[in-house]
């Protein structure tokens, strides 16, 4: 399927937020961004650099600003996209189309575009590798099939699995999470593939 078809399918899919994301798309069309499709959602770019994306989830929809940390955010409405995991990305969430202040959204979009044109972006730190938790390492050593499947994932996806286990505080939670991810690893399904 071509990117244009994927974009139309994304916006045409029935959901409680169909009208909301359609309005955000209309506003994005008033900017000088190029509409693209990456990570299973619409992404708007300037000079091949990601500026913002329009997304929908189960409980809300909104705009991801890839370098939102540089936005002035006069209304103080932006949230860190993944607290502790992302330095630059910020998210503006909506739960109903009526919450969208069109003029304000356009101002945030335009400011993010100007920031990108000025070269304001977070420097991505190179990872020094993934530390595999002991529980997962033991299971990988016990099964060649599981080990091969895990190694087939990109370093980023391997890291997601490892962090998911390491973030659990209690041993029983770690074990429950381990049992959840093992079948996913065997089937080649990334931890967050459903959201991409």
TrEMBL record:
A Pfam family of this chain: OmdA
Gene3D superfamilies recorded: 3.90.1150.200
Residue span(s) of domain YdhG-like: 22-113
The protein's name in its UniProt record: YdhG-like domain-containing protein
């Amino acid at each position: 399927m071509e990117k244009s078809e994927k974009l139309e399918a994304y916006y045409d899919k029935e959901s409680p937020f169909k009208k909301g994301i359609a309005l955000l798309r209309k506003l994005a069309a008033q900017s000088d961004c190029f509409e693209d499709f990456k990570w299973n959602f619409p992404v708007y770019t300037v000079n091949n650099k990601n500026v913002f994306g329009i997304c929908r989830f189960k409980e809300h929809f909104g705009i991801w600003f890839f370098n939102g940390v540089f936005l002035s955010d006069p209304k103080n409405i932006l949230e860190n996209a993944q607290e502790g995991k992302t330095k630059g990305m910020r998210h503006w969430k909506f739960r109903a189309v009526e919450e969208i202040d069109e003029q304000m959204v356009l101002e945030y979009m335009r400011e993010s575009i100007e920031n990108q044109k000025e070269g304001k972006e977070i420097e991505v730190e190179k990872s020094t590798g993934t530390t595999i938790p002991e529980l997962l390492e033991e299971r990988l050593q016990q099964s060649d099939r599981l080990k091969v499947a895990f190694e087939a994932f990109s370093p980023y996806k391997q890291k997601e699995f490892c962090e998911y286990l390491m973030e659990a505080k209690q041993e029983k939670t770690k074990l429950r999470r381990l049992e959840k991810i093992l079948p996913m690893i065997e089937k080649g399904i990334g931890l967050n593939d459903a959201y991409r």
